[in-house]
Amino acid sequence: MPLVLHNTLTRRKEVFAPLDARRVRMYVCGPTVYDLPHIGNARPVIVFDVLYRLLRRLYGAAHVCYARNITDIDDKIIARAKETGEPIRDLTERTATIFHEDVAALGTVPPDIEPRATDHIPQMIRMIETLIASRHAYIADHHVLFAVTSMSDYGRLSRRSRDEMIAGARVEVAPYKRDPADFVLWKPSAPDQPGWDSPWGRGRPGWHIECSAMSEAHLGETLDIHGGGIDLIFPHHENEIAQSVCAHGGRPFARYWLHNEFVVVEGEKMSKSLGNFLTIRDVLAEAPGEAARYAMLMSHYRDPLDWTADRLTEARRALDRFYLALRQAEAPVPAAGDAPQGVRAALEDDLNTPLALAALHDALGALNKAGNTAEKARLKAELLAGGALLGLLQQDPQAWLQGGGEASEIDALIAERNAARRARNFPRADDIRTRLAMRGIVLEDKPDGTTDWRRAT
Ligand code: AMP
Ligand code: ZN
């Protein structure tokens, strides 16, 4: 089955065909680093991680190039640094590290390239110069602005009317603009603001030009896939298209645009400004990263996702079932299995992760029913390969089932209980079982006299 992806540009599912199958190029807008990322911010990271894993599986790991930027110059960063007194560079480094730790805990593979905006100022300046030379941009009051009327199909991605665009979020009305929808490519910096020398004086780039310049620098003029959350469709992605297409003589910028829906809380977008957010760290304090990842994949990326405690518990229980089966299936694992057909087919149909999880559960059912060792080994390998495509089930089952740092203390109690059982001191053995149960530890006595344990959910 071919890979089919929903393209925001056409609002349809389309068969995916890269320009060059030996170098499939994907760019995803990354975080603006000034604060702890929330679980809504984790959604695009996880969704595009699944797509990255699938593309690597389809085209070979060496033939996929995934870039996700870090926006480390932005007015929100400047404002936060001013508020707290933390130097900008410290703030961006510290929060970029937190972002990396958080998304690693969610089981995401690092992208091939992670360009930082502040490392690409010369490329941004060059692109702006090209836009000025071709009259797509103009200088006004120490700013450089993109002239939206210079591009006939501006607005094609977001399909907004002119009035909607002007009223739209993040469009600043300013007297120096020729047209209210024009947007900033470069702006002046006050002496206490970070800035770089440019042909237009000391200043800093607008947000949109950062992605156009960084994607060109690392992936070339035309991308196969460009992704991000739906809030980026307008103005950010619309403006990236305008800049890149106009700087590249009309050649296309991105061929497939993918956008994830929001993580919502009681129907409203989870966001810093509404204050209705849980940081990734808050979630990781409640549950292992793998459970959070599973919980995210329970919904299709184009559906809103209500983040609840129940969802997380359900995810955790489901993972318990998988890991229990993997622990029990002691059969040796062949080097590489192929993911269950149902998992692959679901992912190839526009990343249908809920269906892929259902297919993974079918594979689990088959493993639990398997009779002989060879059959078990094959099904176990298949289950692990399916898990790998989704970024799940790659831990040692024992580590998952026992999770937490008190393992040796528990092992000591179990040893004591086993000794009590051997000495036929059953009241003592039962007492230890009860004490462990009160701490949420479930014991499983095996026929050979040993005991396994796991954390109850
Ligand atoms: P920001 O740092 O606000 O630019 O957001 C980083 C990424 O997270 C972007 O791709 C946003 O679209 C995405 N994002 C922000 N809030 C949410 C949310 N509540 N649900 C899903 N994605 C979000
Ligand atoms: Zn971007």
How is this structure best described in words?
With 457 residues, the chain is α/β, with parallel strands linked by helices. Helix content is 46%, strand content 14%. The chain has 16 helices and 15 strands. The chain has helices at residues 39-59, 75-84, 88-105, 121-133, 162-167, 207-219, 233-247, 280-286, 289-297, 309-328, 341-348, 353-369, 373-390, 397-402, 407-422, 426-438, and strands spanning 4-7, 12-15, 24-28, 64-68, 137-140, 143-146, 183-188, 203-205, 223-229, 254-260, 263-265, 268-269, 305-306, 441-445, 451-455. The strands form five sheets. Strands 4-3-9-10 form a four-stranded parallel sheet, with helices on both faces. A four-stranded antiparallel sheet has the order 5-6-7-8. Strands 12-11-13 form a three-stranded mixed sheet, covered by helices on one side. The longest helix has 21 residues, at 39-59. The mean pLDDT is 93. The structure holds adenosine monophosphate (AMP) and zinc ion. Zinc ion (ZN) is lined by residues 29, 211, 236, 240. Adenosine monophosphate binds at residues 29, 31-32, 40-41, 43-44, 228-229, 231-232, 260, 262-263, 269-271.
What is the oligomer described by this structure? single chain
Structural class computed from helices and strand pairing: alpha/beta
Shape: elongated
- Small ligands present: adenosine monophosphate, zinc ion
CATH architecture of the largest domain: 3-Layer(aba) Sandwich
Task: Write down the Rg.
Answer: 26 Å
How many discrete structural domains?
3
Through-space gap between termini? 38 Å
Number of strands: 15
Percentage of residues assigned to helices:
40-55%
CATH C-level of the largest domain: Alpha Beta
Please state the average pLDDT score: 93
Number of helices: 16
> Strand fraction band?
5-15%
